[in-house]
Design goal:
Layout lengths: L1 H19 L7 H10 L1 H21 L4 E9 L15 H7 L7 H9 L2 H10 L4 E7 L2 E4 L6 E5 L7 E9 L2 E9 L4 E3 L3 E4 L3 E4 L2 E7 L11 E6 L2 H11 E5 L6 E8 L2 H59 L5 H37 L16 H22 L6 H44 L6 H36 L4 E8 L9 H26 L6 H7 L4 E6 L21 H16 L5 E6 L6 H14 L4 E5 L6 H5 L8 H5 L11 E4 L4 E4 L8 H6 L2 H12 L2 E5 L8 H5 L5 E7 L8 H9 L6 E8 L30
Parallel strand pairs: 15-22, 16-20, 16-21, 17-19, 17-20, 21-22
Antiparallel strand pairs: 1-13, 1-14, 2-3, 2-11, 4-10, 5-6, 5-11, 6-7, 6-8, 9-10, 12-13, 18-19
Helix pairs in contact: 3-13, 6-7, 6-8, 8-12, 9-11, 9-12, 10-11, 15-16
Length: about 800
């Protein structure tokens, strides 16, 4: 059996040597032990974090999400441009015209700051109303008891509280205004529908019918900001984007604490967007309408002048009807006159357009669209120019003039204007030649009328001028009616597919996520705290630290004594009737000693420094050995401090030093009974000696131990701390076995490699360790300390008790 135990111990020693060379890892059991050991702190942390999460949720207002969907159509009213398989953008780029996704442009414009500012002004979002309900502020957008109408323009932001005293009015308090906001002592009484003068402007408070009575004796907070700030807030609340890449559907989303306000914002944006589209489309029609009005006024004055000349001529010449004398001429010159009128009419219109383009050569205005131009190429150029100018003006509203896109469009417009001007001038020259040719033909016919009186010729010339002016005037009147009709029937190229809709379940705060996060934080924070404390704490904690850094056998763990259970180290707690866990630990220590060295009779106990419980372990371990029917003597070898002797009130009498110095030759006369029940005697340290090291080095110590071995089964030596003085190392020669006492949380782990060196160098005979004040007893299994092993204690069979 001893051979098996020795083999197991040897295997465990090799295993410990190998694990000693590896870095420390956080094991799953360590994590579990952290939770089990400090479960109270974890519970407290979780409760606090959950309470804070509940407090946070109680202070946050519910946020709702609403959305609307619209369909973007092209100018022909079609929405299937992407599904038709024709990439119009690619065709435009092949023709040298810059193009982009029209839907993306509309998405950007829909979410532009300009529209946000227009909606903020329309909904009066620069004045906000709220009231306190519990721990949160609740918006009163659609349920406010009154409306504040400011009579002065915005100057500085302001906020105040209005307490409604009765249905007659209320009181203003807690006024703050300015940049930055500063508190003011201003207070005032408010009467409904009457002007109130304040440091930040005058206003009128108008009560809301049916809602004022619900707010009697309640306070409403009012805040005024600039339209720009209100637009920024609205801009941040709204987002827009394409529903998918294969359609022209656009989704616009708004988040707000008020469902009604979110719906109003979405409707306001859609309406403002439609108005902006209609205004863009009407720009060309308005420009054409104004051009026609100017031309009509000019032609009207010229026509009146011609009619006046005709009347004066007829009155002065005495002629009323030239028909009888000019029938033949009119029949012959009818065709020539028609050609002349048509050529001069078109020539005049082209000249008007040339003058218009010359006078507006550097502006961003549109070119009037005149349907009377018979050249289809020039008419198409004018239409393309106006479309590109509209696109440029829309982008300029949301971009700067230095934008690359604007500069590219300006370059295209300049080139198109130059080309169009050249075309008009060439066409004008052609029309001028046609008109001159028609006049020449008419002049040839006129020359054949030599028999007609000169006055009739003059009348015919006046009649011809009147006919030209009248035709042009009638044409302009028709174009004005067409343009007015176009202004009246213009529609936006969008269709609202979905009015504002959405769930009434708030999207924020996310209560379940918040509580789960609080639970996680409540668990993680104390865990990291305890793990960090463990990492920063370099003292010995449990058997695993000793096993990690040393190969020294661990005799047993002496558990921590609860406060008030054992008051002093002088207590001899081991008795035959005591089954306390600490007493069981000493019994386990006696049992385990048999596997370290069964024949050991002289056992020395030492430690690293004072205060590790070495004396307590020595006294009670000696008593435990005596309970087994053996005779035991405990020697106080600490002849410097004589701790055990003082605890037994024997520090003033003779003892070990008397024998070592030769003052006494019979050591048995120095021994005193300690515990009859435990068969325990005690050899005190004796009187303090000036040369303790020399006394311990003398051979009288060896003779003392041999003499005591003749009368006692076990000799237990309570020695000095090994790292303080050399006494322990000197005395170690007489010991069969050395027990090194380590107190948990007192000795630095960095000392353990030095202790391992002492073991490897055999400075102490059969060195083993007793871990005192162990706090791992709450991790044990079984019915008490002596009936089970802790999770760190059992390795496999007898391999727990390592033997060199």
């Amino acid at each position: 059996m001893e051979n098996n135990i020795s083999n197991c111990t040897s295997d465990h020693t090799r295993h410990s040597s190998s694990s000693f060379e590896h870095e420390e890892e956080i094991m799953l059991r360590d994590i579990l032990d952290t939770f089990l050991t400090n479960w109270g702190w974890f519970l407290f942390s979780v409760i606090v974090c959950l309470a804070l999460a509940c407090l946070y949720l109680a202070t946050k207002s519910n946020v709702y999400q609403r959305q609307a969907v619209m369909l973007v159509k092209d100018d022909n009213g079609s929405s299937s441009g992407r599904r038709s398989g024709i990439n119009t953008d690619a065709l435009m780029q092949l023709n040298g015209v810059l193009a982009g996704s029209s839907v993306k442009n509309e998405v950007y414009i829909l979410h532009s700051f300009q529209l946000a500012r227009e909606v903020a002004r329309e909904l009066q979002l620069d004045v906000m109303y709220s009231t306190r309900v519990g721990l949160r502020n609740v918006s009163l957008y659609n349920s406010r008891p009154f409306t504040i109408n400011f009579l002065s323009e915005f100057t500085v932001p302001a906020s105040f509280k209005l307490t409604i005293d009765s249905d007659k009015g209320g009181t203003i308090s807690d006024v703050s205004y300015g940049l930055p906001m500063q508190k003011s002592d201003f207070t005032a009484k408010v009467e409904w529908s009457k002007v109130v003068k304040t440091p930040f402007g005058e206003f009128i408070a108008v009560p809301t019918d049916g809602k004022l009575d619900d707010f009697i004796d309640r306070t409403v907070s009012v805040q005024r900001i600039s339209i720009e700030d209100a637009a920024v807030m609205l801009y941040n609340q709204v987002s827009s984007g394409e529903v998918d890449k294969e359609s022209t559907l656009v989704r616009i989303t708004c988040t707000d604490t008020s469902i009604k306000r979110a719906d109003d914002i979405l409707n306001g944006l859609l309406n403002a967007y439609k108005r902006s589209i209609i205004e863009d489309k009407n720009q060309m029609a308005k420009s054409t309408f104004q051009f026609i009005e100017d031309r009509i006024a000019l032609i009207h004055s010229e026509l009146s002048e011609v009619e006046g000349r005709m009347a004066d001529f007829k009155q002065n010449s005495g002629l009323v009807d030239f028909k009888a004398s000019s029938d033949a001429y009119i029949a012959q010159s009818n065709l020539a006159r028609q050609r002349t009128v048509q050529a001069e009419t078109q020539y005049a219109m082209v000249e008007y357009l040339v003058d218009h383009m010359t006078q507006n050569s550097t502006g961003n205005s549109l070119i009037p669209s005149m349907g009377g131009i018979s050249d289809a190429g020039i008419a198409s150029q004018i239409n393309n120019y106006n479309q590109l100018m509209l696109q440029r003006n829309r982008l300029a509203e949301n971009s700067s003039e230095s934008s690359p896109a604007i500069q590219d469009l300006d370059l295209n417009l300049t080139q198109m204007r130059a080309a169009l001007t050249a075309s008009l001038k060439g066409y004008s020259a052609s029309l001028k030649l046609q008109a001159e040719k028609a006049k020449a033909e008419e002049a040839g016919l006129m020359s054949n009328l030599s028999a007609v009186p000169q006055k009739e010729k003059t009348a015919i010339d006046i009649t011809r001028q009147h006919s030209i002016k009248e035709t042009l005037y009638t044409f302009l009147l028709n174009k004005r009616e067409e343009t007015a009709l176009q202004l009246a029937i213009t529609e936006a190229n969008i269709r609202i597919v979905e009015q504002p809709f959405g769930s009434r379940i708030p999207i924020a705060p996310r209560r379940l996520v918040t509580m789960l996060l609080a639970l996680i934080i409540g668990t993680v924070v104390p865990f990291f705290y305890f793990r960090l404390r463990t990492v920063l704490d370099t003292t010995v904690h449990g058997r695993k630290d000793i096993e990690k850094y040393t190969t020294i056998p661990i005799l047993c763990d002496v558990p921590h004594r609860q406060s008030g259970t054992h008051a002093q180290d002088s207590d001899l707690i081991v008795t035959s009737q005591n089954d306390d866990v600490i007493v069981e630990a000493f019994r386990m220590m006696r049992f385990n000693m048999q596997f370290i060295r069964k024949d050991a009779r002289v056992i020395m106990l030492t430690s690293t420094m004072p205060g590790e419980g070495k004396t307590f372990i020595s006294r009670n371990f000696a008593a435990t050995l005596g309970l087994n029917g053996k005779k035991v003597v405990l020697i106080d070898a600490d002849i410097r401090k004589r701790t055990s002797s003082r605890l037994s009130n024997l520090s003033s009498r003779q003892g070990l030093t008397s024998y070592l110095s030769g003052a006494e030759d019979d050591v048995l006369r120095l021994v005193t009974p300690q515990s009859k029940e435990c068969n325990l005697d005690f050899l005190p340290a004796g009187i303090a000696a000036p040369n303790p090291a020399e006394l311990l080095m003398s051979d009288r110590l060896d003779r003392c131990i041999e003499e005591l071995k003749k009368h006692y089964d076990y000799v237990v030596i309570d020695n000095v701390p090994a790292q303080m003085v050399a006494d322990a190392g000197i005395t170690a020669r007489v010991a069969d076995m050395t027990i090194y006492v380590l107190r948990e949380t007192k000795i630095d782990r960095r000392f353990l490699p030095e202790l391992e060196s002492l073991h490897q160098e055999k400075k102490f005979n059969h060195l083993c360790i007793v871990l005192n004040d162990s706090r791992n007893q709450n991790k044990k299994y079984g019915y008490g300390y002596g009936y089970g092993y802790g999770p760190k204690n059992e390795k496999k069979g007898w391999s727990l008790f390592r033997k060199k």
